Amino acid sequence: MAEVSEVLMSVLSTIRVPRPGDRVHKDECALSFSSPESEGGLYVCMNSFLGFGSQYVDRHHTRSGQRAYLHISRTRKAPKEDEENSGSGDPPKKKPTRLAIGIEGGFNVEQEQYEEEVKVVLFPDRQEVTSDDLATMPDLVRERVSLAMAGLMSADSVSHALQVQQWDGEVRAESRHAVKLKQLDNGTKIPPSGWRCEVCDLQENLWMNLSDGRVFCGRRYFDGSGGNNHALLHFQQTGHPLAVKLGTITPDGADVYSYDEDDMVLDPKLPEHLSHFGIDMMTMEKTEHTMTELEIAVNQRVGEWEVIQESGATLRPLSGPGLTGMKNLGNSCYLNSVMQVLFTVPDFQSKSVTVYHFYLLVCVPDSTAKLGYGLLSGEYSKPAPDPGEGSEPSSEPRGDQVGIAARMFKALVGRGHPEFSTNRQQDAQEFLLHFINMVERNCRSGVNPSEAFRFLVEERIVCQQSQKAKYTQRVDYILQLPVPMDQATNTEELQEAERRREEADSSGAPPPAPVRACIPFTACMAALSEPETLTDFWSSAAQAKTTATKTTRFASFPDHMVIQVKKFTFGQDWVPKKLDVSIDVPDTLDLTALRGTGQQPGEELLPEVAPPPLMTPDVEVKGILGSHGNEEDDSLYSPLLCQSVSPVLDDSTVSQLCEMGFPLEACRKAVYYTGNTGIDAAMNWVMGHMDDPDFSAPMVLPGTSSAPGTTPTESVSEEHLATIVSMGFSRDQATRALRATSNVLERAVDWIFSHLDDLESMEVSEGGRSAAESEGSREPPPGPKVRDGPGKYELFAFISHMGTSTMCGHYVCHIKKDQQWVIFNDQKVCASEKPPKDLGYLYFYRRVTE
C-alpha cells in the first residue's frame, strides 16, 4: 500500500471536502444517464463533484488531469421471504396510511433496497482504496480522504435537493365552528353499530351531524359510488355545519367535515361532541375507510394502466433507438410527453446529437443534448428487471423499461420558474411554450430547432364605419383550436343525458353514465376562421370609437404545425373545468384556404395614428405654428404632433394598472395608446404588449424619437459605448441600443441581446460617414425568420391528458414510428392498437412534401 499511499499524498490537494452549498452529482453521470445502479457504477470527481459513468470517466481524467474519484456502485438486494408475500417473491410493502410523501406512514419514495459499495479509485491505473485501506496510511492522508468520502456520501445529491422530499396532504385546519358548536338536546343516542341513512337506508359512507345527531349518507362520487348526498342536503336545510364519518371514530380521532367551510377539519372538542349523543370515543373501533384512505386508493390507481385509454388491449412492448421510456419524477409526465414528441422532430434530433458529440469532446455536460441522445440512441431502452426473483411470470408483457430519469434536464428548464421548478402537475402546452422560449433565447446565433414550429399570423381588422383595413403580423408557435359545443352532432343524446342526471339528483338515485359530446373537426376549423367582432374599436380614420371585424389567417406555414384543442375553460362560477369532447381529428390536414392574402387591390388602409389623449377643457394648449396656423387659430392643432406638451392621462386608470404590479411607464403607455378609454382597454393593451422589449421603457410620444424630457439628438455615454463595443458589437449597434434605452447601460445590454436578428442586418457605418447617415441609408430590418411552404400536413404525434384539470391527472403521448403508432406512458413503451386520436389535447403535424 506504500505506492498507493504516495499517490494519494501527491493528489491530496485535488481532494476536496464538500462544503454547504456545493453541488454534488452522485446520482447521475454528467454526460449520460448512468447511475450507481448501472453496470460499472458511477465515478464522482473528488474535486469538481461531477459524476461520470464508467465509459466517460477516462475521458474526464485525460482532459482535466484529475486522478482521484469516488466510485459508488449499488446492487439490488434479493427480496426477503415473508409470510405475507404469498410466494410472490416481493417483500411485503406497507400500505400508506397518510396522504403524504417521504414521511412515516406516507408513500415510500425509496421502495427498492440496495447494497452499496464505496471506494476511492486512482487513475489512470485504477488503483482502489477502501475505508479499511486508509487505516494503514499516514494520518494526513487518512483524515483528508476519510472526511472527503464521508462528506460526499452524506451530502445531498443535486437531484435529491431539487425534489420535494416531504409533502403532507393531511394537514387540516381547526374548524371555526368547533369550539362554539351548538348541540340540540333532542335525546338522540347513537348505537355503536347498525347505522343506516335516515332517507335511503344506505349502510355505508354514513355521516352523523354533530348538531342534531341525525345520520345521513355522504356525497356521491364521480363514478356513481359513495352516497346519495343526503348529509349535504340536510346541511342545506338546517345550516348545521359539522358532521363526523361513522366507522372512522377511534381513540385517536375521526374524519370531521365542515360543509360550511367545504373541507376536512379538526374538532378539538370531538370527544365532548360525540359523548353528547352517547358515543364513547375511547371504546370505538374503525370499521370504515377514512377519506384519506379513499384518496390514497385513488392516488395508487392513477399511475396504473387502467387509466390509459388502451387499457383493454394487450399491448406489445417495444424497445430500441427512439423507443426509450422516461421515469416519472413526480408529476413529470407532462415533461416526458412533450420531450418524447420534440425529439421526434428532425430539427431537435440533429441539434441534440451534434451538440452532444461536441460536449463529449470537451467533457462538458449539456442536459438537453444528453436527454436527446439518451432517447434516440437506444442505450437505455431495456426491459426493467423483474420485481422479485421468486415472482411468477406474468401472463402479459409488462412493457416497463429501465428508461431514463431526466433530473438534470428538469432542474435546468425549471430553474427560477414558479411552476416548472416544483413537483406539481403542469399544463403540457405551457411547458412546450416555455421550452421553446428557452431554445429561442439560447440559439440566437446558431441553428435554432424551434424554427420548425415558428409561423406568422396575419390579422386583418376592418373598420365598419370607414371600411378601411389594418394589417398586422405576429409570431406564433401553436394554433389554438376552439371547441364550439353548440355544434355537437349528438345534441339530443346530450340533452337526454342531462335530463336523466337532473332527475337522478332530485330523486337521490345514482347518476347515469356520462355522455361525451362529439364535435366535428370541420366545425372547430370554421369557428377558428370566422371573423371576430370588435366593439369599442378606435378608428384612426373616423377618429372615434366604432365597430370592427378581425379576421385571422396564416402569413406562413411552418414545417411542423402544433394544434392545441382548447379543452380547458372556466365555468360561470370561474371554476376551471375540462370539456369532455371527442373530435374527429384527421390524419391529413390542408390549411391552404387559411393563408392570408395581405392588402387587396383598391383596399384603403387605416392611417397609422395613435388615439389622442383625453384633453380636459381646462387645459390650455398651443398649436404648432405653420403655413396654415397662427396663435389665434388652433383648428389644426394635433396633440400627436406637439412635442412641447405632455399628454394628459387618466391618473386613476394608471394607478389601477400600477397596483396590479405593472411598470409605471408601461401603464402610462397603455392608457395613452387606448385613448383614456378605461381600465379594460388599457388592460388588454398591457396583456398584448408584455413581451415587447421596450415594454417598461420610458414612453416615447409618436412623432418624436425620445422620451419626454430628452432630445432626439441626445448624446450617448462614451463609457457605455466602449463597454458594449468590448463585447464584440459595432459602434453603430451600441449607439442604437443606448438610444433605445435612454442611455442606461444595463437595459442597453438586455436590449441588444434581444434584438440580435435586427442588429445582424445592420450595415456597419463606413469611414467618413456618420452614424446618422448610416441609419438613413440602411434598409429596414427584416422580420422574424420563418419557414414557409405548402399548407398540407400529416399527423405524426399527439399528447393526451386524463383528469379534470391541467393541475392534476396524467399525460401520455402517441407517436407514429415507421407507420406504427407507439404509446409512451412514462417508462412503458408499447405498440398502440387503437390510438385515441379523438381525445387528444395537443396534436403535432408535419408538412407533406409533394
From TrEMBL:
Keywords attached to this entry: Hydrolase, Metal-binding, Protease, Repeat, Thiol protease, Ubl conjugation pathway, Zinc, Zinc-finger
PROSITE patterns: UBA (PS50030), USP_1 (PS00972), USP_2 (PS00973), USP_3 (PS50235), ZF_UBP (PS50271)
Record's keyword annotation contains Lipid biosynthesis: no
Catalytic activity field: Thiol-dependent hydrolysis of ester, thioester, amide, peptide and isopeptide bonds formed by the C-terminal Gly of ubiquitin (a 76-residue protein attached to proteins as an intracellular targeting signal)
Comp. bias intervals (Low complexity): 765-774
Residue ranges annotated for the UBP-type domain, each copy included: 173-281
GO terms assigned for molecular function: cysteine-type deubiquitinase activity; zinc ion binding
Entries under SUPFAM superfamilies matching the protein: Cysteine proteinases, RING/U-box, UBA-like
Ranges for region Disordered: 67-98, 488-514, 763-789
Residue stretches making up the UBA domain: 648-689, 715-755
One Pfam family here: zf-UBP
Catalytic residue positions: C333, H810
Protein name (record): Ubiquitin carboxyl-terminal hydrolase
